[in-house]
Amino acid sequence: MSRSAIRESLKITGQPGLISFSGGWPHPESFPVRELQEINRDILQNSAAFCLQYCPTEGLPELRKQLLLFSNELGLKVREEELLVTSGSQQALDLLSRVFIDPGDLVVTENPSFVSAIAAFRGSGARFLPAAMDTQGLVPEELSASLEELQKTAGGSSDYAQNMPKFIYTIPDFQNPTGLTLSVKRRTGLLEIAERFDLLVVEDIPYRWLRYRGKHLPLLGADSRPGRVIKIFSLSKIMAPGLRIAWIIGERSIIDKLVAVKQAADLCTGSFTQLMAAEFLRRGFFQPAVKRISALYRGKMQAMLETLQERMPALPGLQWTVPQGGVFIWLTLPAGMDSSEMLREAVERQIAYVPGTAFFPTGGGTNNLRLNFTFPTERQIRDGIVRLARVVRGHARRPVRLA
Ligand SMILES: Cc1ncc(COP(=O)(O)O)c(C=O)c1O
């Protein structure tokens, strides 16, 4: 395993004067401090005996109850035994890796995909089948063609199941790192593929509520019972990542195995933050927080898109995504430019981003970079993109180095 490029780049983001577009961090202003203070005071006064105690691995009953209600409101048909609270969705990804992946197993990920999911799968020895994306997200036809190819090679052999991928990992809403959203038609297409090849889908849903334009699209397989699709939800982007509260919804047999692995990992997620999350949901703080945070981030995304439009040089192939929500914009530089090389100059000019190569499990992305717009202020976004445009212009003038 190697250290994540993002974690490494975050080390320089603390430098005074540096404008960081690197992490996927919420802005501190988004944190519901007043609500958490109120809950904190109440639960320490009334519930210290159990919220400071160990709790069941499956999760604190008070939170599980709220999460089942929350799932119902989303139209999901979830039973108690189909839900597991985890310490952030990153733990969910880690537990899934431990349960499903043996060294050498294949996993399908969008190409590019979330760097720490790639790291978790790789940590269990996964190999990757990257699924191509365009502006509407993963392209089902291309994935289908790759799976057919694989099926032909594996076909008839006794270890057919072992040769096929263990699951398809997808982030349909405001994907990390591209900010793109999987279209409704493609959601149906992806599920059809999963059915046809008898594959599980892992749907990672941390950004769904950060929608600044348009309407929510249906969750994958929302009208059927958990089975084909394993869902991972997180409160990191609406409450706070420091609480480390997320949950998995899946078939009982899968949840049972995940519980066994989680017992060995951390016994249980912190009871204290679980009760805070339960009260946050019970007191109806979730939707107002969504509204407030979306208003904050909508302006920031707009500021970044506007400044990119105004300041980026007109170079062949230079383009960026226009997301409907989330926390990232994905920039493509002209072919032949190297975003990792350019980062040194960017840091000299006091800006940071994550180079694209970190997000491609089997290579690629040299001329891509990821920009976060939630952590910096609007002023920093405008200043930072002006500086980035200068760096891009300067770098584009360099002669291309031939290999
Ligand atoms: C797609 C995706 N999944 C999971 C995570 C991890 O979130 P957490 O562990 O805070 O729930 C992130 C964090 O940015 C993410 O972008």
Q: If you had to describe this structure to a student in words, what would you say it looks like?
A:
- With 403 residues, this protein is of the alpha/beta class.
- An eight-stranded mixed sheet has the order 2-9-8-7-6-3-4-5, sandwiched between helices. Strands 10-11-14-13 form a four-stranded antiparallel sheet. Strands 1-12 form a two-stranded parallel ribbon.
- The protein has helices spanning 5-10, 33-46, 48-51, 61-73, 88-100, 115-123, 140-154, 160-163, 184-196, 252-266, 271-282, 286-311, 339-348, 378-397; strands at 19-20, 83-86, 106-111, 127-134, 137-138, 167-170, 200-205, 229-234, 246-249, 319-320, 328-332, 351-352, 354-355, 368-372.
Q: Any descriptors?
A:
four-stranded antiparallel sheet, globular, binds pyridoxal-5'-phosphate, 403 residues, alpha/beta
The parts where pLDDT drops under 50 for at least 5 residues are none
Order of strands, main sheet, comes to 2-9-8-7-6-3-4-5
* Beta content: 5-15%
Distance between the first and last residues' Cα: 28 Å
The description of the largest β-sheet is: 8 strands, mixed
Q: Strand-and-helix sequence, N→C?
A: HEHHHEHEHEEHHEHEEEHHHEEHEEEH
How large is the radius of gyration? 21 Å
Tell me, rounded to a whole number, the average pLDDT.
94
* Number of DSSP strand runs: 14
Helix content: 40-55%
- Structural class, from secondary structure content? alpha/beta
Identify the overall geometry. globular
Can you lay out the helices and strands and say which pair or pack?
Layout (H helix, E strand, L loop, with lengths): L4 H6 L8 E2 L12 H14 L1 H4 L9 H13 L9 E4 L1 H13 L5 E6 L3 H9 L3 E8 L2 E2 L1 H15 L5 H4 L3 E4 L13 H13 L3 E6 L23 E6 L11 E4 L2 H15 L4 H12 L3 H26 L7 E2 L7 E5 L6 H10 L2 E2 L1 E2 L12 E5 L5 H20 L6
Parallel strand pairs: 1-12, 3-4, 3-6, 6-7, 7-8
Antiparallel strand pairs: 2-9, 4-5, 8-9, 10-11, 11-14, 13-14
Helix pairs in contact: 2-11, 4-11, 5-6, 5-10, 7-9, 12-14
The structure holds pyridoxal-5'-phosphate.
